[in-house]
Amino acid sequence: MKRSLALAFAFFASFLMLAGARAEAPFSFETAPGKLPKTVVPLDYDIALRPNVSALTFTGRESVSVRVTTGTSMIVLNTLGLHIAQASVDGHAVSSVVTDDKKQTTTLHLAAPVATGTHAIRLSFAGKIGEQPQGLFYTKFQTSGGERTMLATQMESTDARRMFPSWDEPAFRATYRLQVSVPKTFDAVSNMPASSTTITGDTKTVTFARTPKMASYLVVLCAGEFGYIQGVSDGVKVRVVAPKGREQNGRYALDAAERLLAYYDDYFGIKYPLPKLDLIAVPGGFPGAMENWGGITFTQGDLLFDPAVQPDSAKEGIFQTVAHEMSHQWFGDLVTMAWWDNLWLNEGFADWMQTKATDHFNPDWHLWQRVNGDVETAMATDGQMTTHPVQTPIEDETQADAAFDEITYQKGGAFIRMTEAYLGEAVFRDGIRQYMRANAYSNTTSANLYAALSAASHQDVATFAKAWTLDPGFPLVTADETCTNGRTSIALSQQRFFYEPDQTSSQLWQIPLRIAPALSPQGAQVTLMANKTQTVSAGPCDGPVLVNAGASGYFRVQYDATTSAALVNQIARLAPDDRVRVLADTQALVVAQKAPPGAFLQTVSNLGSDDNLAVWETTLSGLRRIADFEVGHPGLATFDAYRRSVLRPVFERIGGWAPSSSDAAVASLQQKLIEALGAAGDQEIIAQARVRYAKFRTDPASLPPNLRPAVLNVVGTYADAPTWDQMHAGIKQSKSTEEALMYVTALCHARDPELAQRCLEMSLNGDIPAEAGPVNGLFDLVTVATRARQPQMSWAFYKANAPKLQEHFSEFEQVYIGTKLLPLFWNAAPQAELEAYIKAHMPPGLPQTAQVLHLLDLTIATANRVVPEVDAWVSTKGAGTTAAGR
Ligand SMILES: [Zn+2]
User: Fold this and answer.
1) Which residues contact residue 234 at a Cβ distance below 8 angstroms, ignoring those fewer than 6 apart?
2) DSSP assignments along 578-646, one per residue
């Protein structure tokens, strides 16, 4: 699964959870965690569902063939919100049915015990079709013929039990035969192709072929008025399924999926195991994407691409999301984690593979350099004392949702990347192939993965992985380089990295160091550092030596003062990955009070003629962070001038408004620089954006889709009321949700307080297309708080409207939103007021509540410390450059 919410809100976040998971054994069904007894095991489900689309209810019948391993007079399975009307075992009515929605179970009490062997359980049941994406849900969308309803499912983590009574834990693999009766104008899509379709009166009944053995959370069912486009890859039919009339916008994703399927067939060494693969666009509030086997669901914007209005950069997210979910078809679906404490196996792997596979097909996006943003998201959380290990005990399946965070995904992915780099690409792939072969159609724990990687590499991967996956945090390596008799000697030491300067820990990691001269990093020397301290020899003294050359290691490095100064001075001559890593480590050391803010700014000033996209993405986010800190302080104008002085020459070097190259990375950098310079008040950028926008209004073709979001955001930032009204009219005139959202975002950049207030109102007044999902209302608040520089106004609006803003979200999502959103208001009110609000509105005793409070405190303390130091640096060292700024 991929949550679109997660990255959009990522800032500094963490979950406080108990540390100290134990090293574990390979998968065994009998000992896999879970609540259901392992003595009754489902083998095959035959399920017939009859949704009532107007009443938003459904009825169902199912027959489950089960194997009983110990005679019993009681059968326990999962249900939630279902009414069981009838139940029988082997044709005999049960004596009682006890449904407990709190435990999310139904218990069948039998008149006589069933013996070991195979039995048939028959159930009929009824439930509701909800609005929230949990189990079977509905969503509405507009067509030229009026509003239409679509049915869809979202089962992960534990919501299959809302649609049919089930053994809804991942270790209970079974085969499924699904049948659904829908209005005859509907099409229905599930994991497998339809084996028969019949129409009786106004009802269409579709029966789907039997699935392979799989986990219940991978069941999918979507129904509605659909359009399709299709292709074939490696003998498998691949389709994009979308609300009728929008399917052509699936062309880009379909092409990506066809290429990826063949790539994964080869990488995993096992052909895609189902006869077809559908990529299904779901309009409305469905968040992110979900890897249902054979029928992946996507929030519409993560799958459909409209080349007439969207910038090419939107393809990056679509390709990566398709790559992520398709990798799960093997790693997750064919081989499934035993329990939710091993969710990282699924998500860490998919997070890594989405970059690897996307980079393979799109090398000009330079994703490995740019993945730093994701790594930093994980490290920002993982550097706090409140973080948790990658593998976290999940006592109860209701906690499973909380495991979907940046530690599970991005840290898990960074660990896989580091492991691949350490073992070698081919050896690692051979290990993955062995893992797939050994565990196909079954479940695993981390131990199964380590066993396969160890067999392929002849290394002890379990011991290597232990601290990275079972302990919280990551190491800071300090490197002290000296030159003795013409040879560089590096005294290394490791300690846990903390943002909190008073924290210490005795934790140790096995760290794969890649040691190489900073200016010629090819052929790095690889050393595994297992002890607290170690000294290595690094060849002739010839400038600074890196110990994380290539940036594949998930750790930070602090060099001695001389080496550090040399790296800062020569930053422009390092390889791009290393430039990014040095910049990112420097920023983090500033926040951790191990370096002054000037260290980061001096590094930026020394970038010189750099025009690498990844370098500037890291730099721009660092500069924007400081600008956010400066909002409301007198130094803001001077800092904006400094930003302009640094960014303007880069913009001019890449050709300004007419880039000197058609390279995708240059185009992307151009857009980011226009936005950043516009935000910092560059008058030429603002004037040019206005001219281009005015022309665009009469001649849309005059503004290429690549430049539209950047130009509109700059115009929106400085909009007056008439301009704002014009742009606002653009929402209604838009031909697609994506186009409408582009206007919404631009409008929320407006710094004029009255206009900012009008943007806030848009989050509730229906201006935002419902199909874009309710999360966009919250994004507006974030945009107003940061880009429009109106944190107090956004906070006041949030406080007054929080229940309404969140009514479309599940309970879990509301907590999640609180965790991500509330810390963003750090500068909107006095700390005491914010703390009181958090305590009153976040569930008491929940670890996330303590974590939000901690993050708030850390952010405020950092801002208070950094602002005067930045002001002092800019007024002295930065002054030479600001004079050149506009
Ligand atoms: Zn995933």
Assistant:
1) 261, 262, 265, 271, 272
2) HHHHHHHHHHHHHHTTSS-HHHHHHHHHTTTT---HHHHHHHHHHHHHHHHHHTTSTTHHHHHHHHHHH
CA 168 to mean position of chain CA atoms: 24
Band (18; pLDDT cuts 50, 70, 90) = very low
Q: Which helix (H) or strand (E) holds 476?
A: strand 475-484
397 is catalytic: no
Residues paired with 482 in a beta bridge: 489
- C-alpha–C-alpha distance, residues 800 and 802, integer Å: 6
- Residue 6 pLDDT > 80: no
Q: What is the mean pLDDT of the chain?
A: 93
Residue 157: is the preceding peptide bond cis (ω within 30°)? yes
CB 460 within 8 A of CB 422: no
Question: Cα of 835 to ligand 1 centre, how many Å?
Answer: 33
Secondary structure tally for the chain: helices H, strands E = 27, 29
Compute, in angstroms, the gap from residue 272 CA to the centroid of ligand 1: 17
Q: 3-class SS at 513?
A: strand
Tokens of residue 50, six digits: 């009859």
Question: If you measure from the C-alpha of residue 772 to the centroid of ligand 1, how many angstroms do you get, rounded to a whole number?
Answer: 21
Q: What angle do CA 730, 224, 779 make, to 5 degrees?
A: 40
The kind and range of the H/E element at 41 are: strand 40-52
Q: What is the pLDDT of residues 746-782, one digit of tens each?
A: 999 999 999 999 999 999 999 998 888 888 889 999 9
The answer to whether 378 and 407 have CB atoms below 8 angstroms apart is: yes
Is 866:597 a contact under the CB 8 Å cutoff?
A: yes
- Active-site residue identified among 24, 156, 247, 325: 325
